[in-house]
From TrEMBL:
Annotated catalysed reactions: [protein]-peptidylproline (omega=180) = [protein]-peptidylproline (omega=0)
UniProt organism field: Diutina rugosa
Record lineage: Eukaryota, Fungi, Dikarya, Ascomycota, Saccharomycotina
UniProt GO BP: mitotic spindle organization
Cellular component annotations (GO), alphabetically ordered: cytoplasm; nucleus; protein phosphatase type 2A complex
Highest taxon of the lineage: Eukaryota
Purpose of the protein: PPIases accelerate the folding of proteins. It catalyzes the cis-trans isomerization of proline imidic peptide bonds in oligopeptides.
Entry EC no(s): 5.2.1.8
Protein location: Cytoplasm; Nucleus
GO MF terms held by the record: peptidyl-prolyl cis-trans isomerase activity; protein tyrosine phosphatase activator activity
Record-given protein name: Serine/threonine-protein phosphatase 2A activator
Length: 378
């Protein structure tokens, strides 16, 4: 029976149960099937917005034309369910346009972001009903979308902490997986271009939120992590370059001419372009892990393999990330592979959203647990 997701991972000890849960198996299934689906396929023209990875003022980004005519022409060629999901993401993007940030200096987290979350909360049911309900053929559409909605709502950062990180992109992948497993999106007939587009559009909306509301990185390892906000984005971009004859060599990706050529067709290059947008100084100093990839690896298949291994170790196996992944009755149940309920630890009292408050800690290589990828020399 469908039910709204609740918190199950309350202590580090709960990770062992998570690792044997049906929920994790379904997350992994979605990840690997997505990787296989999009190998060697570029992002269609018009989907990714150049403004997201172009240095400019916040004011320019608030009023960026979204979606563009080229974007709409491309989306109109997609299947109806994919058009529906893109329309939901367009709606969330439009809410951002009509909710400008409060003026005045603030290092992290513009409070107007909370108004955006409130607008999402009050309008998401109607957006899903309008754009995705028609493609669900199960017996309980209200129950399904009520449970699935929680994963989409949690995919755009925390309202209370005003941050965004890898746990949020994990939540979006879970939402997509729920649509696929329940027949809203027909995985056997949907094209690779459509799949990469629903992720690309999501990443653009998420990064626009980061830039407009100056969201803090959630759970970032600082310079000792792959990226302040993303990891899945790099995996999908690396998959796009696997078995792709037009792909640049791994060692060339940090070069400006390569970024200019591939920034709107490949998510990995687009992510690197975003780093250049929000950071300054020598790349090897502010992003040494990404820099190491392009100094030590020669094959995109090895890059992909290493990124997936890091994702398993640094995202879905880390308590600070997956403690915010909640479990419902049907989509991602707190059950083992036999269908039996997993043990439950005592819930820890936290904020009104059920999410514990963030704690800012200065991160160094000595005080974090990192799992080295195959390319690591250190």
């Amino acid at each position: 029976m469908f039910s709204d997701p609740v918190k199950r991972i309350n202590t580090g000890a709960d990770l062992a149960n998570f690792r044997r849960s049906q929920a994790l198996s379904r997350i992994q299934e979605t990840l690997f099937s997505t990787i296989e689906k999009i190998k060697s396929v570029p992002v269609p023209s018009g989907i990714l917005q150049a403004a997201i990875i172009t240095k400019g003022s916040t004011e320019e980004l608030i009023h960026v034309q979204s979606p563009s005519t080229e974007y709409q022409d491309t989306v109109n060629k997609f299947s109806k369910p994919i058009q529906g999901l893109m329309a939901v993401l367009d709606h969330l993007d439009h809410l951002l346009t009509e909710t400008p940030p409060a003026k005045g200096p603030r290092r992290f987290g513009n409070l107007e972001c909370r108004k955006w979350h409130d607008k999402v909360s009050s309008s998401l049911d109607e957006a899903l009903r309008t754009h995705l309900y028609p493609y669900y053929s199960g017996k309980d559409p209200d129950g399904f979308f009520s449970e699935a909605k929680c994963y989409l709502a949690n995919a755009f950062g925390s309202k209370m902490r005003l941050d965004y990180g890898t746990g949020h992109e994990l939540s979006y992948m879970a939402f997509v997986g729920a649509l696929v497993r329940n027949g809203v999106i027909d995985w056997s007939s949907v094209s690779a271009e459509e799949v990469i587009s629903i992720y690309s559009r999501y990443f653009d909306v998420a990064r626009r939120l980061i830039l407009v509301y100056n969201l803090e990185p959630a759970g970032s390892h600082g310079v000792w992590g792959l990226d302040d906000h993303f990891h899945l984005m790099y995996i999908l971009g690396a998959a796009q370059f696997v078995d792709n004859r037009s792909a640049p060599s791994v060692s060339q990706v940090l070069q400006s001419q390569v970024i200019s050529r591939f920034r709107l067709s490949n998510l990995y290059v687009n992510a690197v372009g975003f780093i250049y947008t929000i950071k300054s100084g020598p790349f090897n100093e502010h992003s040494p892990i990404v820099y190491d990839i392009h100094s030590t690896v020669t094959l995109w298949s090895k890059v992909l393999q290493g990124l997936v291994r890091m994702y398993e170790a640094e995202v879905i196996s880390k308590f600070p990330v997956v403690q915010h992944f909640w479990f419902g009755g049907e989509l991602y149940p707190w059950k083992d592979q036999s269908g039996s309920a997993l043990p439950q630890s005592e819930a820890i009292e936290s904020s009104e959203t059920g999410m514990p408050p963030s704690i800012n800690v200065h991160t160094t290589r000595n005080n974090i647990s990192m799992t080295g990828a195959p390319w690591a020399r250190r």
